[in-house]
Amino acid sequence: MKTLKRIIFPTVSDLMTEAPMTIGVGLSIADAHERMYLNNIHHLVVVDKQRIVGTLSTRQIYLLSSLSLLDPKQIRVASAMTKPYLCTPETPLIEVAHTMEANRNECVVAVDGGHAAGILTTTDILRALRTMLLGIEVAPQVEPTHQPDLPQERQKIPHHTRLADSAPKSANGRALGGAMNISLPTN
């Protein structure tokens, strides 16, 4: 059970996805897109000789693919990546959220011993907000298929599998933590 201090002052490790997927700087953005699609993720940690040198998101890939006259197979990850925002797994979440907002970062890479221990994205932070607002732990709406402890052969999960059907239900049968229709009073 988490301590009260941990609940009040969460750290990156409380919300991050452990063992994030990586990609080498020399691969193409077509390779990166395929890796993201097959694993149902939106961010990759870019490495060069085991050193973290950047991050790459589907947003960057889509932008480059739509603007470029080049074939995505010819565009290297090194030219599409952004400078990574790095922290430790024990960095307070409030500090990370402040920096992410100020710099409009989509993700932060938690580094431990020089390696990517985890990745925290805006989606992870939104799930934490849903948990806070509902007062209960909520399941992710979309689950990445990449998981660090899976055996060599893993089950294929369709892209964008929604988990709302398996989410806990309220007394009126609605999925808790799922999409909510909110009506605001008008004056």
Overview features:
four-stranded mixed β-sheet; CBS-domain; 7 strands; 187 residues; alpha/beta; single chain
Low-confidence stretches: 1-5, 149-170, 174-187
Radius of gyration: 18 Å
Task: Provide the spatial order of strands within the biggest beta sheet.
Answer: 1-7-6-5
The topology string of helices and strands comes to HHEEHEEHHEHEEH
Q: Tell me the count of domains.
A: 1
Class from helix and strand fractions:
alpha/beta
Task: Walk me through this protein's architecture.
This protein has one domain (about 5-165): CBS-domain, CATH 3.10.580.10. It is built from seven helices and seven strands. It has helices at about 5-10, 10-15, 30-40, 60-65, 75-80, 95-105, 120-135; strands at about 15-20, 20-25, 45-50, 50-55, 85, 105-110, 115-120. Mean pLDDT is about 80; it is low at about 1-5, about 150-170 and about 175-185.
Task: Record the SSE blueprint.
Elements lengths: L3 H5 L3 H4 L1 E2 L3 E3 L4 H11 L3 E6 L2 E7 H10 L9 H4 L5 E2 L5 H11 L3 E6 L2 E7 H13 L53
Parallel strand pairs: 2-3, 5-6
Antiparallel strand pairs: 1-7, 3-4, 6-7
